[in-house]
Amino acid sequence: MSYTLSFRFRTSDHADEDAIREYFQTRRNFECSDAQASYGNETTGVYFFFDFRPSTPDIEDTKDLPLSDPAAAPVSIDVNCYRPHYFALEAERELTPFVQHFNLVVSDETGSEYKPEGFLQDWNTSNLDGYRVALSFGQTRPFSLPTATLESIWRWNFTRDERQQVLVEPIYVPRVFLFNVAGALKTGIVWGDDAGPILMPEVDLVLAPRDQGLTFFSMQELLPILSSYPRWMIKPKPGILSLAAFVMRSRGVTT
To answer: Would you tell me how many other CB atoms lie within 10 Å of the CB of residue 86?
Structure first.
């Protein structure tokens, strides 16, 4: 199940289909084909699609219409449902500048104005329906965390490269993962021996290398050890432990 929103040009003076493809080719995390531009962010796990020349709900097929026809829908966005809410948050960050760049309106009978908050609200409604449908067909109830926690994880991962670039010192900014630990969903990072100093998010677990493989340490267990190392504040932010200048050698930690 997915949510689809189609667009058309506001005026007859507009870009052609090649310009739309060229636009996506310059955007990060996009891959283009003749039929669509697919977005995939390996760090956040978010993906969605822009389909070229889609059909619209009120017109059976617009693929054969010239782009000068006001009914022509040159592109639509398709975001899967039964997904965390941050899928729509990340999609909106690409959709809004795209609509503004090409001066698009929603492809409906009146050419409605696109509104980011409307897109998010409509997708969330479809997403809730997707969960209801999946559960009604016997789908196992998925793991879940509070919305604020999921969004915090997504924002950390989404801005990970930006954080890395603004740090003057060579400090490691880890990706936050979700782990199934005895049937419970836990947040965690991987901190290898060669990672060096780290800017550590507030998580449940730290996965560290040991002689016999990998071992989980709880943050509660590590904090007393980490507190003995030098540190300085980079920029205090809610939910971030500013541990900017130390190296914890995991083989020296006993459990």
So the answer is: 20
pLDDT tens across 218-236, in order?
888 877 766 665 543 333 3
pTM over 0.90: no
Q: pLDDT tens for residues 159-176?
A: 999 988 888 777 888 999
DSSP 3-state of 55: coil
What is the DSSP secondary structure assignment for residue 175, as one 8-state letter? P
Q: What CATH number labels 2-136? A: 3.30.1400
What is the residue extent of each domain of the chain? Answer: 2-136, 147-252
The number of CA neighbours under 13 Å toward the Cβ of 233 is: 4
Rounded-to-integer distance, Cα 171 and Cα 154, Å: 20
Separation between Cα atoms, residue 118 and residue 121, nearest integer Å: 5
What distance in Å separates the CA atoms of residue 230 and residue 247, rounded to the nearest whole number? 9
Instruction: Kindly state the tokens that stand for 159.
Output: 């801005």
Distance CA 80, CA 39 (A): 12
- Rounded Cα gap, residues 43 and 90, in angstroms: 12
